[in-house]
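Lab meeting minutes (informal)
Scribe: AK
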Amino acid sequence: MGNNLSVLICDDSLLIRKKLREVLEKCKCAEIFEAENGNVAVELVKAHTPDLIFMDIVMPEKDGIEALKEIKATNPEAKVVMASSVGTNDQLKRALENGAYDFIQKPINLESVLNLIEKVLKEGSVNV
């Protein structure tokens, strides 16, 4: 399965970014960008307008909710998927209220990422 999706991974954990990159490479995504915090994520979104953004909620400097708000302000069409550990239900609710596209539970697995990519592609709002 090949697709022309460009994807941004934003997580302060290098290990999680590495694992998610491996999953996205298996899904044959065209471009994969990485950000270690919300500030970098916002800049990358402005520069590259990725089709899909995986955003950790709890991060130093700028958390996922703040980054989500800024990204949606500059690009209302952005599809931001919040990645969260167990116990962040209140934050997830806030993220969805602020325009998050979806959320996935950590640890992230191939199946949940595949389902999200299929959902994005089905909606056809991607430049293929």
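Next up, CB showed the second protein from the same session:
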Amino acid sequence: MKPLLLSAFVFPGAGYFLLKKPIQGVISALVTIAVLIVFIKEAVYKSNIISQGIVNGEIAIDITAIQQAVFNTPGQISPQTLGVLSWLLAAVWLWGMIDCYRLAKKIKTKHPTV
């Protein structure tokens, strides 16, 4: 259960390191980090535009106006691409949890004292 919990709650792929499968762990971690970097860059890009609009008086200091600006401000990446990246992140995370559980169970079957 430890590898599954590590992959689920600490970081995607973290359980692989406990199972002595560093290549799978590094691949999962790198994919996750790459997707998160894209998300963060997109958020920073949009927040800079919105904050500049607030400073210039183009956007009211009102939660509804700011929320509308978040939805209406074009980003550097299309919403479809962000959706695909979200699904990729979810798939890597879910696969890591399932695979860590499977590998741990396989190891436990071979070595019941572990």
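CB comment: Residues 54 and 60 are 6 Å apart (CA to CA).
No objections, moving on.
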